[in-house]
User: Fold these one by one.
Assistant:
Number 1:
Amino acid sequence: MPEQSVLVVEDTQEIRELVTTVLERAGFAVRAVGTGADALAEVRRDPPDLIVLDLGLPDADGTEICRQIRAETPCYVLMLTARAEEVDLLIGLAVGADGYMAKPFSPRELTARVQAMLRFPRTMPAVTTDPVAAPEPVRRLAELEVDEESREVRVDGAVVDLTRTEFDLLAALASRPGRVLQRETLLREVWQTDWEGNLRLVEAHMSNLRRKLVAAGLSSPEIRTVRGVGYRLVA
Ligand code: CA
């Protein structure tokens, strides 16, 4: 398996070096830059599998860099914030990061989050009473096709441009059509965490996913919200 690559974007030298060191020790190929401009240049030169992105950069707002990265590559974005309270605000802004981590964080926690995001293909832990159906490379549900092998989603044959997290959410729903998946279940399966502070992250990504599917012309199946519980895919 080729080395997975991580781009660290952080202007504070000690943090940049610490993150680089712990991720290299965990076996990732790590590159590090200190500005938003350099981050975009690196992403364009050679897109990494995951970006650890500091919110407070000297030349640009991390949220703006995140949006630009999102427009150019499907890689995972783990955003570092100075305070835990900023996380809610950022989720509300629909910046599009796949995960957030507030400073100070422990190196072990950071490594665990990065490994969880890059675990691929992901194994589905047995958290619902419904067993996951046997792996099928392509699932067809009415107008929708979810191709686990190429990680493509098609609506009436046309590919829909989704981020990795959006794809993972849809694949989780499509593996058990009609069944309600709790938000907590999705957190565990897609983000590999059960920290409930992340529940709004599920909602934010689900709403982006829905918007993209509707914009692609999908009318059936649709993602239904089961208020206070979770989501299900209904044909
Ligand atoms: Ca900073």
Number 2:
Amino acid sequence: METMDQKFLSSWPNVGFVPESFVHPPEKRPGNLVVRPCKTFPVVDLQDDDRTQIIQHIMKASREFGFFQVINHGVPGKLMDDTIRVFKEFHAMSAKEKASECSKDPNRSCRFYTSSEKYATEEVHVWRDALTHPCHPLEEYIEFWPAKPTRYREVVGEYVEELRKLGQKILELLSEGLGISPSYFRGGLSGNPVLLVNNYPSCPDPSLTLGLVRHRDPSLITILLQEEIDGLQVFKDGQWIGVQPLRHAFVVNTGYVLQIISNGKLEGAEHRAVTNSSVSRTSAAFFIYPCKDILIEPAKALTNARDPPLYRAMQFEEFLKNFMSRSANAEPVLQNYELHAQQMKQ
Ligand code: OGA
Ligand code: NI
């Protein structure tokens, strides 16, 4: 078992069982529960002529689900297909190649790992391999991205530039919907987008393990590109619901930073990924993060004497450090914030 654990998941020989270190406790497992795709999952057409209508739609979806899919978003379908193809090619390379392609950056901003970055200390592993690297400014980071597959930098470079534009568009709609300045999220607050390419190999028993445990993203928003394979689930009204992939659509979700800035008017959405027994699934999350030294705090326009700030101001770097040290469980981090806010009120 140990030798298997040491290799990257996607490079394992076909195993007929889930190793114990990947088996989640019964209350956290997906079990045999069939999660049906949700027919009313919001789909927002970004080319709708009526901008007010788009904003209302996005706000309703963000309040009720914390999630929506976007279509007619302006990113060419061919570029989306090429990008997924390159990501799949990357994950299909040998373990040695993947590791060496991600070891050029002295700051280790480009990384490749199985399960999570806390593999050595986490209690249970998840069934995925991940490649991650920053995206902006492109010139600063692209030289540390994988040079193999040979088209990686060209295709992914074009892709992340498109995603930055799409991200700005969605953030502008959200800021208008919240009633803050349309330029609020521009600049440093959305200045550090990071790409995370997940690969969930097919799993001998998907009922025992998870691709990603229940979590909220520490981002403003996250824009997900995925293959047309089920796996993403959203926790809503005490139940897990499946997100049915739509061809050439992106899945957008709200993150914790948006929760803080909106002073709780929108919440970071809870979600997870499950595996399946027949095919591997690749997805790529584009997390819109603030730059490290940027102060995140409830927008002044959204707080007043009756609606005081729920969270204290904190540099993004500090927030992320607290968040990560708690295994991506932000509840205690937020409780800290809330406690602090209460103390300030007293
Ligand atoms: C993530 C995430 C979902 C998926 O990477 O944070 O939630 O379906 N991914 O891969
Ligand atoms: Ni996520």
